[in-house]
């Protein structure tokens, strides 16, 4: 599917992977709605891309529906390209030394990462299904979700995070199969170690140790490289129902 001339919506678009994706889609000729929990951050990115910035909690269905409706009204139609980048990174042991059980943190992580992704996907699918097909294949749109290599390589302390990202990866194929009759593709990207707000505060020695574990290239990924993969997924019609790791061939150690 072509990017040029289409409408896109990027959740978590106020920073990191989402902001880079919004910029790349805009450069490709899309009209982009940037959605973020921080409306201020979303508006700032939108001011660079010529789109609109909206504030919404992705795990709140009413807020997501309102964001899609606002985007459709402002940009002239429902988005055919939807990318979910919103999420949180959490770390907590199942049995921490202080004896506390972090069940609330587990619940919150799933609520934001997994439920939020599903909410965006379901609202996007409903909007896309009502659109006219673009080509002889009957394509109506593409949805790209964000997991993490932790869904396969979860480290100690990542039980909640890995579970949330594993749910996103597991959601991909059944969603793609169900939405195929509407001409909607569903893909997931599983990033490894990337330069994002989550990694920005790492001490230099910790960053160096992490990068030393990356086979090649031995550096953190750039958000623009994630965005490039989004572009390739949108443009290649046979990419559907799969989770793609983008990770320098890393396999995370237990801790």
Question: What would you say this structure looks like, in words?
Answer:
With 255 residues, the protein is an alpha/beta fold. It has a single domain (7-246), classed as 3-Layer(aba) Sandwich (Rossmann fold), CATH 3.40.50. Helices cover 44% and strands 15% of the residues. It has eight helices and seven strands, in the order βαβαβαβαβααβααβ. The chain has a seven-stranded parallel sheet, with helices on both faces. β2, α2 and β3 form a beta-alpha-beta unit. α1 crosses α8 (223-235), α3 (61-75) runs parallel beside α4 (103-129) and α4 runs parallel beside α6. The longest helix is centred in the middle third of the chain and has 27 residues, at 103-129. InterPro entries: NAD(P)-bd_dom_sf (IPR036291), Sc_DH/Rdtase_CS (IPR020904), SDR_fam (IPR002347). It comes from Paracoccus saliphilus. It holds the Pfam family adh_short.
List the helices and strands and how they pair.
Elements: E1 7-11, H1 16-27, E2 31-36, H2 39-49, E3 52-55, H3 61-75, E4 81-84, H4 103-129, E5 141-146, H5 150-153, H6 159-179, E6 184-191, H7 204-212, H8 223-235, E7 243-246
Parallel strand pairs: 1-2, 1-4, 2-3, 4-5, 5-6, 6-7
Outline:
The protein is α/β, with parallel strands linked by helices and 255 residues long. It contains eight helices and seven strands; from the N terminus they run E-H-E-H-E-H-E-H-E-H-H-E-H-H-E.
* Biggest sheet details: 7 strands, parallel
Q: What is the helix tally?
A: 8
Cross-sheet strand order for the largest sheet: 3-2-1-4-5-6-7
Structural class determined from secondary elements: alpha/beta
GO molecular function, one term: oxidoreductase activity
Keywords: Oxidoreductase
Protein name: NAD(P)-dependent dehydrogenase, short-chain alcohol dehydrogenase family
InterPro entries: NAD(P)-bd_dom_sf (IPR036291), Sc_DH/Rdtase_CS (IPR020904), SDR_fam (IPR002347)
């Amino acid at each position: 599917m072509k990017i040029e001339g289409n409408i896109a919506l990027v959740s978590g678009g106020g920073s990191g992977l989402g902001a880079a994706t919004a910029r790349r889609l805009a450069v490709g000729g899309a009209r982009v709605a940037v959605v973020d929990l921080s409306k201020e951050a979303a508006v700032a990115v939108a001011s660079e891309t010529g789109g609109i910035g909206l504030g919404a909690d992705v795990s709140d269905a009413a807020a997501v529906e309102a964001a899609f409706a606002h985007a459709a009204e402002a940009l002239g139609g429902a988005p055919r390209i939807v990318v979910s980048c919103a999420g949180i990174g959490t770390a907590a042991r199942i049995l921490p030394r202080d004896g506390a059980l972090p069940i609330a943190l587990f619940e919150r992580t799933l609520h934001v990462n997994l439920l939020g992704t599903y909410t965006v996907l379901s609202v996007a699918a409903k909007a896309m299904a009502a659109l006219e097909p673009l080509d002889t294949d009957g394509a109506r749109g593409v949805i790209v979700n964000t997991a993490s290599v932790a869904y396969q390589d979860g480290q100690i302390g990542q039980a909640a995070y890995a579970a949330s990202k594993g749910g996103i990866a597991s959601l991909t194929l059944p969603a793609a199969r169900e939405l195929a009759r509407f001409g909607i593709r569903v893909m997931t990207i599983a990033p490894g170690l990337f330069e994002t707000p989550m990694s920005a505060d790492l001490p230099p020695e910790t960053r160096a140790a992490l990068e030393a574990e990356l086979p090649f290239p031995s550096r953190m990924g750039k958000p623009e490289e994630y965005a490039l993969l989004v572009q390739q997924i949108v443009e290649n019609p046979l990419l559907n129902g799969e989770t793609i790791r983008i990770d320098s061939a890393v396999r995370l150690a237990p801790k």
